[in-house]
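Thread: quick sanity check before group meeting

JM: Hey all, I'm pulling together slides for Thursday and realized we never actually wrote out the predicted structure for the chain we discussed last week. Dropping the sequence here so it's in one place. If anyone has concerns about the input, flag it before I start.
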Amino acid sequence: MKLKTFRRGVHPYGGKEYAKACPIQPLAPEGEMVFPMSQNLGAPSKPVVKKGDRVLKGQLIAEAGGFIGAPIFSSVSGTVKAVEKRLTVSGSKVDSVVIENDFLEETVEGFDTKRTLDSLSKEEIVDAIRNAGIVGLGGAGFPTVVKLTPKNADDIDYIIINGAECEPYLTSDYRVMLERPEELILGIQAMLRLLPNAKAVIGIEDNKPDALALMEKMVRIDDKIDVCALKTKYPQGGERQLIYAITGRKINSKMLPADKGCIVDNIGTVYAIYEAVYLNKPLIHNVMTVTGEAVNKPGNFDVPLGISHSYLLEQAGGAKENVVKFISGGPMMGFAMGSLDVPVVKTSSSILAYANDDVANAKETPCIHCGRCVRACPETLVPQLMGRAVKGERIEEFAALGGMECIECGSCAYVCPAKIPLTQLFKYGKIRIREENAKKKEAR
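JM (edit): ok, ran it. Output follows.
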């Protein structure tokens, strides 16, 4: 079997062994549930409940704040305790709905009502996905209904399902593929109904041979769904890299995947689509991995949105005494957590606990011009020159070097022997470019 892949990239330590064999465990909610209004790319959601209101599980508590937005639903029944600013995983405080769980699990009317795909029109499928508040669960949280209703719907010939899960340590998508394959196929079939000229391809890295074999067996029932075996390499699950590996098509920062006839969604998003379309369930839970050498009992958990990360960690046996760092997400694109007393949101994917902090202990030294960063960059950029430009506040030069094409995957920083924080420099450079562009726009 010839494995498909992209050019360049890196091979970091996988760390999958900590949680790979751990079946998904359903997690009961705690007493106080917190639902931040900023859970998607685009406008924050707007609360439609107030202090003292009684709410049910699956009830709308916030409406979409705009076209690029998504509603939010309660994962429990209970009473609204407050609508106030609360700390989030990003370290900022945002408007949030706080609900005191009554543990009665009373649901809204119609919740978990089974229906078939044939009983629904295309418009009803779109409404089900929109009204469920589904966003991309593998990245920035882009509203899924917007992605699945492009202006050029007839030109879309690929629906790419991201089952690569290339980020080290994370195993939640892998477990969903093993434990819920029928539901994933049904979710994909619903997506295909919206894009009639498309074929679906599930991309899975070859370090998951059992998931590859199972999904290949499952897709035999539908000739519009296929499986593509991918080489295990980071960042194979990056949107641009995945599209190139499967289709050979290239996109850049000025394009959307739809411009090249592609739609990309990850495994968790497809499962959420299944629940919305076939069970009339909004997005109120997500599968997360709690892992790392400093976790007592690593595992994969089906987590109600709104619980705290500290509560989730407790369910995994807590952290060992030698823990030095917690990361939200994976080690390559995730970020350090200043506090675990923050709520799980739609885009939360994991808690990673480290016993050693190589990043904090690293000492930056001058660039030796070895070129390793160039050989690693999946976007074929020249990180050493880009980093030098940002350090010198030469933002126009950074832009001319293709700074906005950086996907912030961290491959360059990973291989850099001088331990230069290239990814952080590029994030800063991109912020500066956006600021300068905004000033130019205002001056017109």
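AS: nice. The radius of gyration is 22 Å. The CA atoms of residues 308 and 412 lie 33 Å apart.
JM: adding both to the slides.
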